[in-house]
Amino acid sequence: MKKFSINLRLLFFAGIVFFVCACASTGYIPYDLYPAELIQRAQEASDRNRHNVALRYYEALLQRNRNNLDLVITAKYEIAFIHYQQRNFDLARAGFNSLLEYYESPNAELLPQQFRRLAEIVLERIDEREQQAARRPSWLPFR
Q: Between 100 and 13, whose confidence is greater?
């Protein structure tokens, strides 16, 4: 009887591990997470170079908080920055330009200003990289 109880516990534990792994691999993000938790998990994934996971968390933050401009701005910046880190410069540029459009609205002074300046800095870096790539001989690899 004791052996059966231990096997049942192991089976139960294995089932829970399987369920958690299955949820993680499908990209399911629980709806009961607060925005701060979504941001924290996205940052942790990004720190581990799991950029696709981080993107899913920021997309969830964006979709679930469309009426909170601070969170929208945060999500848009982080998504664009991840594209920049992945050297997807076209997506990054589009994301940063989309973000900067918010700062052209009448309520721009109410938005978090750090993301405006950071977006401008990264756009300048993208321009510099593209100019360097244009000057580099075609037989040299991209760095």
A: 100
